[in-house]
Please model this.
Amino acid sequence: MAKILAFAGSNSSTSINHELVKHTASQIQNHEVRVLDMTRYPFPMYSADIEKQKGFSNSLVEFKNEFAQADGVVLSVNEHNGNISAYFKNIMDWLSRLERTFLADKAILLMSTSPGKGGAKNALTRAEQMLPYFGGKVVATFSLPSFGQNLTAGGFVDAEIASEHATALDSFLKEIS
Model:
């Protein structure tokens, strides 16, 4: 049984990326999945001055330890102005200061969603390029366009989207098994 860490790169209490992560986690059988609510992880904007004056917060160290204990990561990134959110970039900056390869050899299912038709693909692409720098291995990606129309409490509305998601999830699960 693999241990999977699942979270969204958003600290919004109404994050649709968090909803996508929760839905994805609900589809995983026979593995231990830990879904993190990032609203509980308020980090200051990274600054060398803050690091020098205050060091690393307990919550940051605890968050890094979550990665160390996981066999794989399910992550959904949000998009702000065609890029990854400042919050997600900030998390990566802080974690990399603790240990640059904090994702060392972790298999990653990387996802994104947005209210619009683009599905936050720009953020997905940027995160896919960035995560290997920290040692992660993106084994599958999935972008969900038009979140409100395509994912309901009952699951994916469109069979083709459901199939794409299932294929990405299966690839990830095979990698960590």
Strands lie at 3-8, 32-35, 72-77, 79-80, 83-84, 107-113, 137-144, 151-152, 155-156.
